[in-house]
Amino acid sequence: MARDTWFETVAIAQQRAKKRLPKSVYAALIAASERGQTVAENVDAFAELGFAPHVIGALEKRDLATTVMGQDISLPVVISPTGVQAVHPDGELAVARAAAARGTAMGLSSFASKPIEEVVAANPKTFFQVYWLGDRDAIAARVERARAAGAVGLIVTTDWSFSHGRDWGSPKIPEQMDLRTTVRMMPEGLVRPRWFLQWAKTMRPPNLRVPNQAGRGEPGPPFFAAYGEWMGTPPPTWADIAWLRELWGGPFMLKGVMRVDDAKQAVDAGVSAISVSNHGGNNLDGTPASIRALPAIADAVGDQIEVLLDGGVRRGSDVVKAVALGARAVMIGRAYLWGLAANGQAGVENVLDVLSGGVDSALRGLGLGSVHDLAPEHVLVPPGFARALGVPGDPTA
Ligand SMILES: Cc1cc2nc3c(=O)[nH]c(=O)nc-3n(C[C@H](O)[C@H](O)[C@H](O)COP(=O)(O)O)c2cc1C
């Protein structure tokens, strides 16, 4: 990778993304909701946790590899599904290729812009993510398409409450990229020419359709039509989750669990994994940082199912903190989106390299030889840090 495109931290990737993307696309990645309390807390909470490094005793080599939902991965970091389409023309294919090149798995959003068949071809370790949208037959049809395509796991995301007010104003996402929209975005194009040129070279505008919501080979509905149908779908029950788990029959994650009582219900519904997550602060603002909820959930169900975490992970030391506090692995969202915006596939590889280098350094500093040796005692947790949500009578709940 050319030196001038390489970045040494995710923060620098974010600065580059901000410079490169039109304002509205950048704002769509910032996302969040209401006053942005949770999105900020996800990141800030990691900075409250600390380490006590050894000065002698580091091991020569460190082992970062683990498994998630039956897949061998080279570091405890998985791509979290995100549905933002217009970051880069190669979109999810660039992300899938980068994840495959670095030996990890990919969650593909049901609101992604590329067909699942192409994404699985780029990375066979693909988990398909489902929103509860349409009736059981429609959901079953999508899941069967994912199975036929070779998806190796399902991620079901239910933590969405359709809150769309933001104190800094929401970006205007167009219905479709037609001539009128292109003309309206021209002023943004003049100040962000590299992004526009990238698309111009492909001779195709960003595809604001969601191909995985339809049958194989169909273009899929426009994003907003799918979103509208989602809003009109009755929210799922635990029986629905158990039904889908049964139908799928393979590795199955419920993403977005923040409470111990929900985690226990998820175990009863038969899931094989959960991600402790608040949807990257995009759902109900005021939800605590996911890292605060992790220890109690890992304690309660960590010996029965795989517990992952996502939200606020920006560096390898964050990964180490989460694994020490009970996560098997973390999933990343914005971190790889910044990389994708900054430098396409190579930018996502760069982000994964930054994280793996950071995990390795933290293990070295702690004198550990493997991510599997991490335990809560390796992290300095200030009093009152954790939140045991959904535990009756717990003062931190
Ligand atoms: C722009 C954007 C789009 C997202 N789209 C989806 C999605 O389609 N499905 C889903 O399950 N989660 C979605 N998420 C949530 C991520 O999977 C993940 O939970 C979150 O980004 C983690 O927080 P982080 O961005 O701080 O890493 C989205 C997040 C962002 C920022």
UniProtKB/TrEMBL annotation:
Binding residues for FMN, per the UniProt record? Answer: 81-83, 109, 129, 157, 255, 277, 310-314, 333-334
Please indicate which superkingdom the organism of origin belongs to. Answer: Bacteria
Active site annotation, chain numbering: H279
Give cofactor(s), names only: FMN
Q: Does the keyword Oxidoreductase apply?
A: yes
Q: Name one GO molecular function term.
A: FMN binding
UniProt keyword terms in alphabetical order? Flavoprotein, FMN, Oxidoreductase
Gene3D superfamilies in the record, alphabetically?
Answer: Aldolase class I (3.20.20.70)
User: Where is glyoxylate annotated to bind?
Assistant: Y131, R166, H279
Q: Domain (FMN hydroxy acid dehydrogenase): give its ranges.
A: 2-384
Check the record and name the InterPro entries matching this protein: Aldolase_TIM (IPR013785), Alpha-hydoxy_acid_DH_FMN (IPR012133), FMN-dep_DH (IPR000262), FMN_HAD (IPR037396), MftD (IPR023989)
Which family does this protein fall into? Answer: Belongs to the FMN-dependent alpha-hydroxy acid dehydrogenase family.
Question: Per its UniProt record, what NCBIfam families does this chain match?
Answer: actino_HemFlav
- PANTHER family associated with the record: 2-HYDROXYACID OXIDASE 1, S -2-HYDROXY-ACID OXIDASE-RELATED
Can you say what this protein is called? Alpha-hydroxy-acid oxidizing enzyme
Q: Which organism is it from?
A: Mycolicibacterium holsaticum
